[in-house]
Design goal:
heterotrimer; A: about 230 residues; mainly alpha; MetI-like fold; 10 helices; about 80% helix; about 0% strand; flat; B: about 280 residues; alpha/beta; 2 domains; 14 strands
Chain lengths: ~230, ~280, ~230
């Protein structure tokens, strides 16, 4: 009956600083990974719709494999296991970088890009086929019709699921703590093991995660109101 | 309503947290009644605690101490794997009755749980690639691996403030990072490092490439952890430990895991189990 | 160290990967992964149904309250939910709950909040006219929900449920962090012990997870196609 709450440790001083630095790493990790995931996802989606069979198969395999494997296992694989399959040069370069962060970014990017690629593909599919045909018949090449006609529309439709993937990614980034990336969850646990004030540390981290989540959800609502509704209205 | 539910959840949580602190009862009597002693141990940290790949049984220095205590109590043992980060909560929440998990006695920890007499004494050192580290200076500004929530983590931050300390869930992951060149050293108690070095020496690919330089940054007395105020169990365990020293069992266990012919040879030196208060002041 | 991959460590420990210490100790490995996933899924189905029904309740207080709970859980990483359960449950319920069941509770709470959205969407997806028609034939609102709306909604939800099962299998890997010996824990344990085969070990369990998940992904697709075909006739 003698648990004494001590909220001061998470609202100021050294442990507060730890949590803030954790928040910073969580945001950095999420933003870098979502940007890369979008690029990789775009490429994979294009490959998935390619007319060249092996390219299409590769993309299909990529999608299925990485979507159906736990992210945690992928993180361990890239952190501990990648040195045997990557060329020496690449591995040496990675070791000189912030390896933990890099491995987390790679794992999060590959995992998330597989989901984003599917979102982009269904965005493209929702653009009527006639548009492509019209573009082609007016002299555009396949690539140029994609680039100038289809993709711009598809991307606009893909933004809401993309924001949703960003939300997932932000939450998933907590798994990076397992390989020593000092993000928010890692710091919360550090505070707990140094102070034994788990209740306070976890509450603080939970509040921050909820804040981030609601911020991102708000972004989605805003996009829907400002961009999508006016388009649909026409 | 949302606010009400929020309040209710908070209230429940607080009540819960307070009850949690009041868990300690008479574990000794309960263990005897159940016929099982639940021990929190490491499951992949030879020579202290690991699962033997052939028999699938837990084995190690910590395990042998638990076994002896249980035998004396006349009960069976159930092992629960713990990590450095979760072992104290596991004990305080009542998921295990006793911790035998390479745990250093410290005054901070002693505020949360009680410790037995010291059953193992070691010091914190570094495991490195051969010839890379000669003194603490060589570690400045480098990455050093260790385990979350351990005393090693706190000690090394004090000893080499300019280094980046990377904390893993447990030590072997740090050693893996060392092998792959991601950290320059792994730091923890010499006894654990000796076990890891032993594993590296057994493998032709890594044999002779690693060493433990003679740099010690702290002294680490290990104690068995029990819930605060669990007096009967503590008395029993302490008495048993003294008995083990007296009848030579403690030394036998030490020789079994750290003797000259083992994978992790270190010297017991002058260490004996006594009614000590090492690490607690 | 660099060179070809050597899977002998996997071959030699195959039973350990699939069953853990069983029969010498408790069940672990793949078997425990499936056990955790199946039990949590069944419970999440019930939890999701309850939360989903509450969130479309006509009583505003219930509706807002349940929505607040759902949104709070959805706003947290699963890892956070797991830590909370490990921290709070023993404090509230004493030490009686095993680690397996603590994980099951965390997974259930987390997945229920996602399932409730599926349930809600399923219910809202049934045309309003049906409810009105059912009520006008003399059924109470509750009866109409139970006998008319829910059965249709549930049928439409089946593919999404199967998809949730795939997520659930993947999510069980987080149990490793709290020392529950499911597949990922066994793999890290093996990795800690041998230290030379991380690539082989994690590749192997990735493939095992893939096989389990892909089978259910395909099942969900097949169900979706079937229900689309059914609707078209």
């Amino acid at each position: 009956m003698n648990y004494r709450f001590d909220w001061a440790i998470v609202t100021s001083g050294k442990y507060f600083d730890w949590l803030v630095s954790g928040l910073y790493v969580t945001i950095k990790l999420s933003v870098v990974s979502i940007a890369l995931s979008f690029l990789v996802g775009l490429v994979i989606a294009m490959m998935r719709m390619s007319h060249v069979r092996p390219v299409r198969w590769f993309a299909h395999g990529y999608l299925e494999f990485f979507r159906n494997t736990p992210l945690l296992v992928q993180i361990f694989f890239w952190y501990f296991g990648s040195y045997k399959i990557l060329p020496r040069v690449v591995n040496d370069w990675m070791v000189r970088q912030d390896f933990e962060f890099t491995a987390a970014v790679i794992a999060l990017t590959i995992y998330t890009s597989a989901f984003i690629a599917e979102d982009i593909r269904s965005g493209v599919r929702s653009i009527p086929k006639e548009q492509m045909e019209a573009a082609r018949s007016s002299g555009f090449s396949y690539v140029r019709s994609m680039r100038y006609i289809i993709l711009p529309q598809a991307v606009r439709l893909t933004i809401p699921p993309l924001i949703n993937q960003f939300l997932n990614l932000m939450k998933n980034s907590s798994l990076a703590m397992t390989i020593g990336v000092a993000e928010l969850m890692y710091q919360a646990r550090q505070v707990e093991s140094y102070t034994f004030k788990g209740f306070e540390a976890f509450t603080a981290a939970t509040v921050v995660y909820l804040g981030l989540s609601f911020l991102i959800t708000g972004l989605m609502t805003l996009y829907d109101k400002m961009v999508l509704q006016p388009i649909k209205g026409h | 309503m949302a606010r009400k539910i929020g309040l209710l959840v908070m209230a429940l949580a607080m009540v819960g947290a307070m009850c949690g602190a009041a868990l300690a009862g008479d574990t000794l009597a309960e263990v005897k009644k159940k016929g099982v002693l639940v021990a929190g141990v490491k499951d992949s940290l030879p020579p202290f605690g690991s699962v033997d790949p052939k028999t699938k049984e837990f084995v190690g220095y910590d395990i042998d101490f638990v076994k002896y205590i249980a035998k004396k109590l006349g009960v069976k043992v159930e092992y629960k794997p713990v990590t450095s980060a979760n072992r104290m909560p596991m004990l305080m929440e009542g998921r295990v009755d006793i911790l035998a998990a390479t745990m250093t006695k410290t005054p901070e920890r002693a505020k949360q749980i009680d410790f037995s007499y010291t059953y193992f004494l070691t010091g914190q050192k570094f495991l490195t690639k051969k010839g890379t580290v000669h003194s603490l200076k060589d570690l400045q500004g480098k990455k050093i691996g260790t385990a979350k929530g351990s005393t090693s983590e706190q000690n090394v931050k004090k000893a080499v403030p300019s280094a980046t300390v990377l904390s893993f869930d447990d030590y072997p992951q740090g050693v893996l990072a060392l092998q792959q060149g991601k950290v320059i050293a792994v730091t923890t108690d010499e006894s654990i490092l000796a076990g890891q070095l032993g594993k590296l020496q057994k493998n032709p690919a890594t044999k002779g490439k690693f060493e433990i330089p003679d740099i010690q940054i702290s002294s680490e007395p290990y104690g068995l952890g029990m819930r605060k105020g669990d007096t009967n169990l503590e008395k029993f365990v302490d008495a048993t430990l003294l008995e083990m020293e007296k009848n030579g069992e403690a030394k036998k266990i030490f020789e079994r895991w750290f003797g000259p012919n083992t994978d992790s040879p270190i010297k017991r030196g002058k260490f004996k189990i006594t009614a000590d208060r090492m690490g607690l002041e | 160290m660099v060179g070809g991959l050597d899977f002998s460590v996997v071959r030699e420990n195959l039973p350990y990967f699939f069953l853990g210490r069983y029969p010498k100790g408790p069940l672990g490995g793949v078997a425990l992964t499936l056990y955790l996933a199946v039990v949590s899924l069944v419970l999440s189905f019930l939890g999701g149904l309850i939360l989903g029904l509450l969130s479309v309740s006509r009583n505003r207080l219930i509706k807002w309250g349940s929505t607040a709970v759902i949104q709070t859980i959805r706003g947290m990483p699963l890892l956070m939910v797991i830590f909370w359960m490990f921290f709070l449950l023993p404090a509230m319920l004493g030490s009686g709950m095993s680690a397996d069941w603590t994980i099951i509770t965390a997974l259930t709470l987390f997945t229920s909040s996602y399932m409730s959205e599926i349930v809600r969407a399923g219910i809202l997806g049934i045309p309003k006219g049906q409810m009105e028609a059912a009520v006008s034939t003399g059924l109470s609102h509750k009866q109409a929900m139970t006998y008319v709306i829910l059965p249709q909604a549930l049928r439409n939800m089946i593919p999404s449920f199967v998809n949730q099962f795939v997520s659930m299998i993947k999510d069980t890997s987080l149990a490793f962090i709290v020392g529950v010996s499911e597949l990922t824990h066994i793999a890290t344990q093996m990795n800690n012990r041998t230290m030379l085969y991380p690539t082989e070990i994690f590749l192997f369990i990735a493939v095992i997870y893939f096989i389990m998940c892909f089978a259910f992904t395909e099942l969900s697709r097949w169900l979706e196609r079937r229900s689309a075909w059914r609707k078209s006739i």
